[in-house]
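Onboarding guide, step 5: your first structure request.
Type a short instruction followed by the sequence, for example:

Predict the 3D structure of this protein.
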Amino acid sequence: MIEVPSPNHGDRTAAVDVLVLHYTELPLAESLAILTDGARPQRVSAHYVLAEDGTPYRLVPEDRVAWHAGRSGWRGREALNGTSIGIEIVNLHGDRHDYPARQVEALVALCHGIVARHPLIVPRNVVGHSDVAPKRKIDPGLRFPWATLAAAGIGLWPRPGAGERTLAGDLPAALQLFGYPAPTAEATASDIVAAFQRRFRPARADGIEDGETRGLAADLLDQVGHRP
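The system replies with structure tokens like these:
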């Protein structure tokens, strides 16, 4: 762990129960410079930055609030900075470039440590920036290895055959029950469906409420104890 302290942080007044994963879309040096710049008009930070070679950088202590999620919502709560840990993963564009195996291995180890220190981070609360800020954000991208993380005990992934399941009722309502924000003028129901697909069906994230998407939602609700 390399310490690169950022001045951009605040008091932590609530327990941590969300882990938010991002990609930087910028090289390591430029990312670190931005995240540690205390003079920017809009200051930003993260608790950790993970380099492509797997080297972790700590910018903000976990007992402090880092400014990484912005306008965000999950499971009925908004402004998630106050209750989350943020990891920025160096990737120039997660829709075009795979995450290197050594970086993914290091990410799994880093996440395991965070979850062990913050047991309120249940699997459904390991999220991407695109999950908590649909349409506004698309990171960590279509190529992010969510299935690999879930297999290692970090987060959730649909089970085999999940896309063939039946979901009763309204899909946006089901996604909100799982955790996604309610539709707004800024992020419509279609935008939220697309965010769900980016995470759980990255091969086609078109925002269309098809049977496969409904089946994936049904399986995930079942995994977290809700009747689909």
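Each response can be followed by summary notes, for example: The first strand starts at residue 2 and ends at 3.
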